[in-house]
Structure formats: structure tokens, C-alpha cells
């Protein structure tokens, strides 16, 4: 077993999670790339290893309690610590509200709500037991503060993770466990690329109109946030000594300012 600072990131095989996994590895963390897409997670871990960095891949469906606990056990076996955890895995399913299938609502709750609970609880248990504490970071969204058409379950869940972070911040403080919610506006990842044609079809508008009039309309500059913005914020939070615990950080180009 190595003993080095470690970071487990869920949904790390793509988009935001991937950029954050790469950055934390560059920062000297042993990284656990946790994702349901194991081949993509393994590919990233191999790429990082080829660069002389430390990473392992684990299959983890964040809605499955046993898989989550097993992934964290693997982290402890490999690195002997659980210093930073990012609960980031997510999907988006959009429908007009009156047509929203209950099965899709449940799918959204399983990944976003059950997933955030299971991952943060697994992290909390190990951070408390180590006596060293640690940092738990949730990927929220601008949708943690506003409401958007077609996204009722997503809004429900993203508002929820910000509350979960606040509660854990109170309970975890005496053990040195700090929590944060990073809340980006739209970032061009596969999750968003997929939504552009879907929203255009649901709302009967063009794809350009979805980008300009929905995704970027409420920013001050019409600019997408980037995965690098999130990775930079994660590095910044990894050095916080509790001053920011419980807070939600808005990376939104002025959309939903405080
Ligand atoms: P993405 O689709 O690029 O990546 C999501 C990753 O999560 C994928 O690798 C996927 O395999 C994995 N995943 C899906 N279900 C999973 C499960 N049950 N267990 C484990 N892994 C699972 O998406 P992204 O844009 O990088 O999104 C990451 C997070 O950021 C999500 O929580 C999303 O809601 C949030 N977010 C995204 C944006 C954006 O504009 N892209 C903005 C704000 C918040």
C-alpha cells in the first residue's frame, strides 16, 4: 500500500470529473477514477499512469451502496487515505413536466440524490475514522439556485445537494471534515451537447436558439463556463482550512449572483 494524499472522483471518466481527476493527479494526489463506464475510467487511469502520475479505476454505480463502499475500500487499500472526494456523477433527462415519466424521476433521484448520499457518507465514515478529516465536494449547478423548464427533477436534486453539503459541514466540523458545492452554469461536456438537440425538439426552437436564448441568456457575457474553471476551483478548495465549509461557489458568468 502506498501512503499518499488521495482523491476519489465519481463520474470521472468524462467531462467535469475527468478534468478534475487529471488536475488532482497533477497536484500529486493518488486519484480514484470512479465511473459506471469502466473502460473509459481505465483508459484515463492508464493515461495518467503513463504520465508518471498515480491513478486507479473502479467500477462504481453511485446509486449502488455495495459498489460505493467497495470503491472506497479500494481507495483505502491502495492509498491508505481518503483526503478529498468529489461527488460529481450525473445525468440529465429532460421532459415537459406534465409528461415527465415517474421512472425517469426515479432514475434521476437514484443517481443524483441516492448517489450524493452514498458517496458522501462513505467519504465521511473514512475521513472521521482516520482522525484526519478531509474535504467532500459536490458538483451542484446554477440549477441549485434557479429553476429551468423541463428540469424539475434536476432542479430538485441540485438544490438538495447544496443542503446536504451544509448539513454535513455542521456535523463534520469537529472531525475536520469540510464540504463544498461547486455550482457551474453550462459547460460544453457530453451531458450538455446531448441536451441541445433534445431541448430544441421539446421547445420547438433551433439549436442555436437553445444555446443563445436558454443556456447563456442569463450570463453577463454569453460565455460558457469550462471544465478548467471547475478544476481550478477544486484545487483552490483542496487547500481551504474550513473558512469556506458549507458554501456553494457559483461559477456562472454572472447568472444567479448572490
Ligand atoms: P458527462 O456526461 O460528461 O459525465 C458524467 C459522467 O458520469 C460520465 O462519465 C458517466 O458515465 C458518469 N455516470 C453517469 N451515471 C453514473 C452513475 N450512476 N454512477 C457513476 N457514474 C455515472 O457530464 P458532466 O457535464 O461532466 O457532468 C458532471 C456533473 O456536473 C453532473 O453532476 C452534472 O449534473 C453537473 N453539471 C454539469 C454542467 C454542464 O453544463 N455540463 C453544469 C452544472 C453541473
UniProtKB/TrEMBL annotation:
<dbReference type="Pfam" id="PF00106">
    <property type="entry name" value="adh_short"/>
</dbReference>
<keyword id="KW-0443">Lipid metabolism</keyword>
<dbReference type="InterPro" id="IPR036291">
    <property type="entry name" value="NAD(P)-bd_dom_sf"/>
</dbReference>
<dbReference type="InterPro" id="IPR050259">
    <property type="entry name" value="SDR"/>
</dbReference>
<keyword id="KW-0560">Oxidoreductase</keyword>
<dbReference type="GO" id="GO:0008206">
    <property type="term" value="P:bile acid metabolic process"/>
</dbReference>
<dbReference type="InterPro" id="IPR002347">
    <property type="entry name" value="SDR_fam"/>
</dbReference>
<keyword id="KW-0753">Steroid metabolism</keyword>
<protein>
    <submittedName>
        <fullName>3-hydroxybutyrate dehydrogenase</fullName>
        <ecNumber>1.1.1.30</ecNumber>
    </submittedName>
</protein>
<comment type="similarity">
    <text>Belongs to the short-chain dehydrogenases/reductases (SDR) family.</text>
</comment>
<dbReference type="GO" id="GO:0003858">
    <property type="term" value="F:3-hydroxybutyrate dehydrogenase activity"/>
</dbReference>
Amino acid at each position: 500500500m502506498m501512503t499518499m494524499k488521495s482523491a476519489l472522483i465519481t463520474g470521472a471518466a468524462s467531462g467535469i470529473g475527468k478534468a478534475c481527476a487529471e488536475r488532482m493527479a497533477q497536484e500529486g494526489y493518488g486519484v480514484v477514477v470512479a465511473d459506471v463506464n469502466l473502460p473509459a475510467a481505465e483508459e484515463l487511469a492508464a493515461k495518467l499512469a503513463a504520465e508518471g502520475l498515480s491513478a486507479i479505476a473502479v467500477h462504481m454505480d453511485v446509486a449502488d451502496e455495495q459498489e460505493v463502499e467497495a470503491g472506497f475500500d479500494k481507495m483505502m487499500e491502495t492509498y491508505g487515505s481518503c483526503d478529498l472526494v468529489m461527488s460529481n456523477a450525473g445525468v440529465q433527462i429532460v421532459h415537459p413536466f406534465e409528461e415527465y415519466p415517474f421512472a425517469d424521476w426515479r432514475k434521476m433521484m437514484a443517481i443524483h440524490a441516492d448517489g450524493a448520499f452514498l458517496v458522501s457518507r462513505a467519504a465521511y465514515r473514512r475521513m472521521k475514522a482516520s482522525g484526519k478529516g478531509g474535504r467532500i465536494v459536490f458538483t451542484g449547478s446554477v440549477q441549485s439556485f434557479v429553476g429551468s423548464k423541463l428540469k424539475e427533477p434536476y432542479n430538485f436534486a441540485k438544490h438538495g445537494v447544496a443542503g446536504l453539503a451544509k448539513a454535513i459541514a455542521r456535523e463534520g466540523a469537529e472531525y475536520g471534515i469540510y464540504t463544498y458545492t461547486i455550482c457551474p452554469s453550462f459547460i460544453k461536456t457530453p451531458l450538455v451537447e446531448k441536451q441541445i438537440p433534445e431541448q430544441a425538439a421539446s421547445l420547438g426552437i433551433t439549436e442555436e436558439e437553445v444555446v443563445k436564448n436558454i443556456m447563456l441568456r442569463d450570463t453577463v457575457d454569453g460565455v460558457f463556463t469550462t471544465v478548467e474553471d471547475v478544476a481550478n476551483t477544486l484545487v483552490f478548495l483542496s487547500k481551504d482550512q474550513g473558512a469556506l465549509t458549507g458554501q456553494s461557489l457559483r461559477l456562472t458568468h454572472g447568472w444567479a449572483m448572490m
